Amino acid sequence: MKQDSQTRLIHAPRKAPQLISSIQPPLYRASTIIFNNTDALFNRHWSDEYDYSYGTHGTPTTFTLGDNIAQLEGGLYHLLAPSGLSAINLVNSCFLSQGDEVWVADNIYGPNMEHLRNLEKRYGITVKVYNPIEIETFQPTDNAKLIWLEAAGSVTLEFPDLTGLVKKAQAHNMVTVLDNTWGAGLAFNAFDFGHEHLSVDITVHALTKYPSGGGDILMGSVVTRDKVLHNQLFRAHALQGISVSGDDVAQVQRSLASMQLRYEHQSQSCLTILDWLKQQTELIQVLHPADSDSAGHPYWKEICRQAHSAGLVSVIFDSKYTIQDIRNFCDSLSLFKLGFSWGGPVSLVMLYNLNDMRVLQHSHLKDGLLVRFCIGLEHPKDLIQDIQHALEQMKKLKHE
Ligand SMILES: Cc1ncc(COP(=O)(O)O)c(C=O)c1O
Fold first, then answer.
1. Coil, strand, or helix at residue 192?
2. Which is the closest atom of ligand 1 to the Cα of 219?
3. For residue 181, which atom of ligand 1 is closest to its CA?
4. CB 3.0–4.6 Å: which of 61, 121, 162, 400 could bond 28 by disulfide?
5. Torsions phi, psi of 6, nearest 5?
6. Residues 48 and 142 in one domain
7. What residue numbers bound the domain in which 151 lies?
8. Which residue's alpha carbon is nearest to atom 6 within ligand 1?
């Protein structure tokens, strides 16, 4: 039957051959998945990840990346979300119901805490905060349902007693969830700490950081080894319509090949810069889990691979430096760009006021304004020069 050119443009005759190899897997973009016949339609099982039925339930492209992330982290089952925060919210909305108690580390990623506070107000769950390096502050009641762990924690980078916290949570039948973004599946195995084969139940990973590596794509993952937990998450994920773009997934998949090399390089550069920062008199505290003076260092040493400590380091300025001085410092940097996030090629800087960020008292943190550096892929000697120049500028403007 002769067809109109408009129809022929849509139903192109060429089909990809079955057996063709390329370095990167083929990219599937799909909302609609075409069933071969009505048998396939009526016998579909949407909870079976290899029984493709609709774009939101996954495509070979999303499952390829998910499998890679799960394997990297030591998990079995996976889901992708459009951002790390969306992955966090999926876990919270899936497991927390009215009357439940959720425990959160005081140094958890800020928007996670904010999201939980919102759930607390609207849905009657109780949010309790613990000090990640003082396990006695974690006192679950019979209503305790879920604990959020982060290693190392956001901004102040304390490394928690993961083993102790997980043991205690398990004794209360709580679901243990780790924000695994810092370790990225490389620094330690969240599904086997090496001690008594202890493991968290679920990891959440902001793939926006190291897996993407470009500073240009947002994505998150949720991984577990527990089929029952995964089934609950899978259903919530599908019903909430959480989905990622195939093009974005393909970009992250492409970056995975260099992820470990980048992570090791950024870890090493960060340690070089850390050594230099510790000599600077304007700074009264340097925070990095691999530094023996930092809170939680023994826990870091216990479970982490020494060459893998990420590219984040925070510093506290002497309290004689005002917010204006710190702003002058940040504005004088040239290689370090002022921006949120980390794990990309460009080094970043961000300033924080700890008084606005913590619920508990933390005696290990000195009084002063905090700046976090995210080390990119530039040469560390150039980055040190950049910081040195900005410190000098800051002091010149203060007439020191
Ligand atoms: C520790 C941590 N978890 C989760 C997120 C959220 O990731 P996203 O920016 O993809 O929402 C971030 C982002 O900065 C983070 O630092």
1. coil
2. 10
3. 1
4. 61
5. -60, -45
6. yes
7. 38-255
8. 84
- Which atom belonging to ligand 1 lies closest to the Cα atom of 87? 11
Instruction: Reduce the DSSP state of residue 398 to 3 states and report it.
Output: helix
The reply to whether 330 and 380 lie within a common domain is: yes
Total residue length of the chain: 400
Q: How far is the CA of 65 from the centre of ligand 1 (A)?
A: 18
Q: Are residues 362 and 268 in the same domain?
A: yes
- Comparing CA positions, the residue from 212, 245, 254 lying closest to residue 23 is 254
What is the CA(109)–ligand 1 centre distance, in A?
7
Which CATH number characterizes residue 58's domain?
Answer: 3.40.640.10
Q: How far apart are CA 191 and CA 180, in angstroms?
A: 11
Q: Best substitution site from 204, 341, 348, 350 to test ligand 1's pocket, by max atoms within 8 Å of Cβ?
A: 341
Taking alpha carbons only, the member of 187, 143, 68, 107 closest to residue 357 is 107
Residues with CB under 6 A from ligand 1: 83-85, 109, 154, 179, 181, 206, 208, 218, 220, 341
In a domain? residue 263: yes
What residue owns the CA closest to ligand 1's atom 7? 84
Q: Do 249 and 139 lie in a common domain? A: yes
Which sign, positive or negative, has the C-alpha torsion 21, 263, 71, 216? Answer: negative
Per-residue pLDDT of the chain (400 residues; tens, 9 = 90+): 888 888 887 887 777 777 788 899 999 999 999 999 999 999 988 767 677 889 988 999 999 999 999 999 999 999 999 999 999 999 999 999 999 999 999 999 999 999 999 999 999 999 999 999 999 999 999 999 999 999 999 999 999 999 999 999 999 999 999 999 999 999 999 999 987 889 999 999 999 999 999 999 999 999 999 999 999 999 999 999 999 999 999 999 999 999 999 999 999 999 999 999 999 999 999 999 999 999 999 999 999 998 899 999 999 999 999 999 999 999 999 999 999 999 999 999 999 988 888 889 888 999 999 999 999 999 999 999 999 999 999 999 998 7
Q: Has residue 12 been placed in a domain?
A: no
Single residue among 204, 236, 255 that ends a domain in this structure: 255
Q: Which two tokens stand for residue 372?
A: 């976090």
What tokens were used for 41? 């339609």
Q: Residue with structure tokens 């530094």?
A: 291
**Ligand 1 pocket mutation, candidates 80, 85, 217, criterion most atoms within 8 A of CB:** 85
For residue 375 the two structure tokens come to 């080390």
Q: How far is the CA of 102 from the centre of ligand 1 (A)?
A: 19
How far away, in angstroms, is 203 Cα from ligand 1 center? 13
